Amino acid sequence: MRALLLTALAAAAPAAAQEARFADFRYEGRSIERAVPKTGEYRNPILSGYYPDPSITRVGEDYYLVLSSFTHYPGLPIFKSRDLVNWTQIGNAIDRPGQLDFSGLAVSRGVFAPDISFHAGTFYIVNTCVDCKGNFVITAKDPAGPWSDPIWLPFEGIDPSITWEGDRAYIVNNRAPSEPSRYDGHRAIWIQEYDWRAGRMVGPSTELVNGGVDLSKKPVWIEGPHIFKKDGWYYLTAAEGGTSVNHSQVVFRSKALTGPYVPWDRNPILTQRDLDPARPDPITSAGHATLVQTQSGDWWATFLATRPYEGDFYNIGRETFLLPVTWRDGWPVILDPGKPIPHVVAKPRLPAGPAPTLPTSGDFGYVDAFDGPKLGMQWIGVRTPKANFWRLDRGDLVLKGGAALGDQKGVPAFLGRRQQHHVATVSTTVTFAPMKDGDRAGLAAIQSDQSNLFFGVTRIAGKPQVALYTRDKGEEKLVASAPVDPRRPVTLTIRANGGTMAFDYGAGGTTRTLKAGLDARFLSTNRAGGFVGTVIGPFAYTH
Fold first, then answer.
1. DSSP code of residue 362
2. Pair 257, 234: CB distance under 8 Å
3. pTM higher than 0.90 for the full model?
4. 83, 159, 193, 223: which one is catalytic?
5. Is 53 noted as a catalytic residue in this protein?
6. Interior/surface letters 335-360, b for 16+ CB within 10 angstroms, e for the rest
7. N or C: which end of the chain has fewer CB within 10 A?
8. No. of H helices and E strands in the chain?
9. For position 18, what pLDDT does the model report?
10. Does 223 qualify as catalytic in the annotation?
11. From 19, 53, 319, 504, the catalytic residue
């Protein structure tokens, strides 16, 4: 009997040992630019790091933002503010596996450019799941959630938003033009009524804008449309030029909701494409704006832009910025042509809101000791999990292996946080005993399934090692390795500095550098492609 018991325990031991335990997660970051706001000023961006496509709405004295999250899960993060400057995340609109299924989707597919609005006691998000089922609406009484399951809509295209006209709703979005496409990137903006009580589209679809401001110049990727009304005019604002360095925001207006819409003769109302790319501390690729009027009567715009560390290289993704809107001759202007987006701006004329416990702007750091009852809402994974691969246990985050890095068909046992600064130090302490060659646990930095890195404990040729692997749109490569004792906790530290990274490991009171000066530009959007930023966090994989 005793022999049978010992045999059973021995058989169970490897499975238990294959769990990876992470004692903490530490982040410290600072911006490359040294902008310092004075009293009465705020610092751009208001949401640092991978928080693109901001849509804003005001309900009374409260402001809400929703952002794109593509196939990261939970998705569609929602933030709240009282002053447009201090923002606190209050939830994720996609937080149940049954809402959307991202199975098999690339990291930069999934949910693009959501729009948030409020009507008759209910919040609405209208959105697109690219390579999923298309366009949909979800609702909630409380913007913190829970949000409903999707109501799927029958039209093609992306970037829908809701325009409220009294008690009626209209959805405006990017669709194919009514004529045969004249060139790559030729799109159009359409509008159709949405019966919000029945949850269905009704009536005819009307094309509002064909191509963009000037069709003869072959404008590309007119998208992200929003319509609002002011002084008897309907204003349609949209992004034009694509989301890279030629990005811009343009505006049209009409006396009728369904047009005809006339473009402003001094478009665009926001862009950075005409500025010297060699200027110091550049902010680039600005566009995809949403305008909001404050209770004080002022107008402001949230929009996305990027902060490269060199050329068009940035690893942290597209970020959310805020600027005041000036009205001139009945047209809104976010920024005059030729002017750079300022890093420091005078605050809105609003009562100061509470400072967030977790900052979203400027230089900051945090520690997650995993000692709470649940995981913070800032943690995200890759694709919708089919089964739970993590738990919190006695102050540790415990992971059990999922799919391998690079396996787009699966869900990796990965939980990460956005890298929010180009100069950042990220560390964790992991305990893991690899049983087979290739088993691993440590930190992963992921831009996509094809562009990522792993730094942590593994087994190579039968020997426990601390190792660094990189994947730059190809096969994974071993960069460096060193022996390590898997019986002891190992502290892993990644030090990012613009386009380079260094990797330190500590065990038994000794810290060593495994690799310094790694060219990390393969984690930039320029190299990796797509629409996301680098996400770094604990990862585990076992055969």
1. S
2. yes
3. yes
4. 223
5. yes
6. beeeebbebebebbebeebeebeebb
7. N
8. 2, 40
9. 85
10. yes
11. 53
Diameter over CA atoms, the chain: 91
Helix-, strand-, coil-residue percentages of the chain, each rounded to 5: 5, 50, 45
Contact at 8 Å (CB) between 89 and 71?
no
* Continuous H helices in 309-448: none
413-452: pLDDT as tens digits: 999 999 999 999 999 999 999 999 999 999 999 999 999 9
DSSP string covering 123-155: EEEEEEEETTTEEEEEEESSTTSPPPPPEE-S-
Stretch (H or E) spanning 411: none
Decide: 81 and 353 in contact? Cβ < 8 Å: yes
- For 284, list phi and psi in degrees, rounded to 5: -130, 175
Q: What is the pLDDT of residues 458-497, one digit of tens each?
A: 999 999 999 999 999 989 999 999 999 988 999 999 999 9
Tokens of 120: 């008759």
Query: Residue 319 and residue 323: Cα distance in Å, rounded?
Result: 13
> Minimal CA–CA distance to 247: which of 214, 273, 275, 217?
273
